[in-house]
Design a protein that fits this description.
The chain is mainly alpha-helical. It has 24 helices and no strands. The protein has helices spanning 2-11, 13-24, 40-67, 70-88, 96-128, 134-166, 184-194, 197-202, 204-209, 214-220, 224-235, 243-251, 260-289, 291-294, 309-342, 344-364, 366-372, 374-389, 392-398, 400-403, 409-435, 440-460, 472-476, 513-516. The longest helix is centred in the middle third of the chain and has 34 residues, at 309-342. 59% of the residues are buried. Residues 495-500 and 505-513 have low confidence and may be disordered.
Length: 517
């Protein structure tokens, strides 16, 4: 539910950003016969400021997740998200400067809280899951992003539809003043943003009841007895603490992030996870943040001047909902179903390659698809979403939660995720400049650039090893072996059936545990 809230809060802004232009910059297109739009710098700030906060929050909360414990930091992120979602719908004044300024202030802090959810959710899930289904569990957490995107479109569609029913108005072309539908339209975007607080608050109690992960308690705190007690509550069976084995694993886990040993064992892994996530998010966030500009090209929305304010929001939200439901959502759950059968490596390679191919076709044939074949354009556009999520958008979240040792797992995931958000910022502040006006030349350039970034992601994937079927301690070398560093026998495919058995104090949901006891 944390990730559901993250996605809702990040992507609901796409449904209302054009409305903000109509309401607060109504004279920006004076004389053109078109409704007002946000100036490019303001539009980039409104859609991108939360991503800046997310990048910073990932680094800060990821670091403290390793230093203070996963559970202690987890509740703070949730409270921050709830408070700032409510604050996003408030305004410290009535001028466009005060409204946009207040919105950006709270969305920055909202992003800061969302940033903490990335490394902590992934780390907690990886440390609780067993090795046979760990990929599916972590991917299922991330798949709630798809549900959040669907609800961002659905909630905006429902709220705008209700207000539209009780506040009919002519189109902008017919009457520019009445088409703004004030004050209903002003309430609409505030309600949509503030609704993001409720799922966060609804899950606060359960987050606070979660015990610290046994791996952190045993390997970092060195408290085998507490780890076994926590796991007895989770598994509802008796587990004996094995302090001698825990001491051995702690000794193999002692090197810090900034050390030659870490660089030798995991330097290339960290380079692989950061570069692939960075390149993926340039494309993925460009797709999501600029889809309102793509929709007219695939005939999902009409010209803005032919609609009133709430009607335009309704049409954009409906299109976003349909694309997410038919293109985005299935990809996440196909990943959940297949990630522990196909492996992370193959899914990521396939996803990057197919995204690059479809975007290249859309870029080269943009004019033809836009003018003569809307159906094919819509199918290609949906397929890029499908292979983003049945591909690198899911696997770049899973791999950093598995590759690194317990002591720095949250931090390394945070660094990888922050690298991704740096790519998202390029999408928000760079790619959007090309797509905002919707002219053919710039749309073609944007799609071809995204095709190239995806192909680069394909090649950087070769830096990342396969983790399927291995325990976290085996992958990281915390069991005293070489792990998956340069001296290890690293394969791209499932390991042989021989398996290392961790101490029972950190044995999480292993399917053989009943028989062993």
């Amino acid at each position: 539910m944390g990730f559901f809230t993250d996605a809702y809060d990040l992507f609901c802004i796409s449904t209302v950003s054009k409305l903000l232009g109509r309401l607060y910059y109504s004279d920006s297109n004076a004389g053109s016969g078109k409704p007002g739009t946000l100036p490019v710098p303001v539009n980039n700030m409104v859609t991108g400021v939360a991503l800046v906060g997310t990048l910073m929050g990932q680094l800060v909360f990821g670091y403290f997740g390793d230093k203070l414990g996963r559970k202690r930091v987890y509740g703070i992120t949730l409270v921050l998200m709830a408070v700032c979602a409510i604050g996003s719908g408030l305004s410290f004044g009535t001028t466009h400067r005060s409204v946009i300024g207040t919105l950006c202030f709270f969305r920055f802090l909202l992003g800061f809280g969302i940033g903490g959810d990335y490394p902590l959710s992934a780390t907690i899930m990886s440390e609780y899951a067993n090795k046979k289904t760990r990929g599916a569990f972590i991917a299922a957490v991330f798949a709630m992003q798809g549900v959040g995107i669907i609800f961002a479109g659905l909630v905006s569609m429902v709220v705008s539809g209700i207000l539209l029913r009780y506040n009919p108005a002519p189109s902008y072309k017919e009457n520019s003043g009445l088409s703004a539908q004030l004050p209903a339209a002003d309430y609409m975007w505030r309600i949509v943003l503030m609704i993001g607080a409720f799922p966060a608050l609804a899950t606060f109690y359960w987050r606070m009841k979660m015990p610290e992960t046994a791996r952190y308690t045993a390997l970092i705190d060195g408290n085998a007895k507490q780890a076994s007690n926590d796991m007895q509550k989770v598994l509802e069976i008796t587990i004996e603490d094995e302090a001698d084995k825990v001491a051995k694993f702690r000794a193999a886990n002692g090197y810090p992030l900034l050390s030659r040993e870490f660089a030798r064992r995991h330097g290339l892994h960290l380079l692989g996870t950061t570069t692939t996530w960075f390149l993926l998010d340039i494309a993925f966030y460009s797709q999501n943040l600029t889809q309102k500009d793509i929709f007219p090209a695939i005939n999902l929305t009409g010209p803005a001047e032919t609609m009133n304010a709430l009607r335009e929001v309704f049409v954009i939200s409906r299109a976003m909902f349909l694309v997410a439901l038919l293109g985005t959502f299935p990809g996440y759950w196909v990943t959940v179903a297949l990630i522990d059968k196909m492996g992370r490596y193959l899914i990521q390679l396939l996803g990057f390659f197919m995204m690059s191919l479809f975007m290249l076709v859309m870029g080269v044939k943009y004019e033809y698809l836009k003018d003569h074949n809307h159906v094919l354009f819509a199918v290609l556009y949906a397929l890029t979403f499908f292979f983003a999520n049945f591909g690198p958008n899911s696997t770049t979240f899973v791999l950093p939660a598995e590759l690194f040792p317990t002591r720095v797992r949250s931090t390394c995931h945070a660094i990888s995720a922050a690298s991704g958000k740096a790519g998202a910022l390029i999408a928000a502040f760079g790619v959007q400049k090309l797509t905002l006006k919707g002219d053919v030349k710039h749309m073609k350039e944007a799609l071809i650039i995204l095709s190239v970034t995806n192909m680069l992601g394909f090649f950087f994937t070769f830096l990342v090893p396969e983790t399927m079927g291995r325990s976290l301690e085996e992958i990281s070398g915390e069991d005293g072996n070489a792990g998956m560093g340069p001296s290890a026998d690293v394969t791209r495919f499932p390991p042989p059936s021989t398996e290392w058995k961790p101490p029972s104090s950190i044995l999480l949901f292993q399917t053989k545990i009943q028989n062993e006891k």
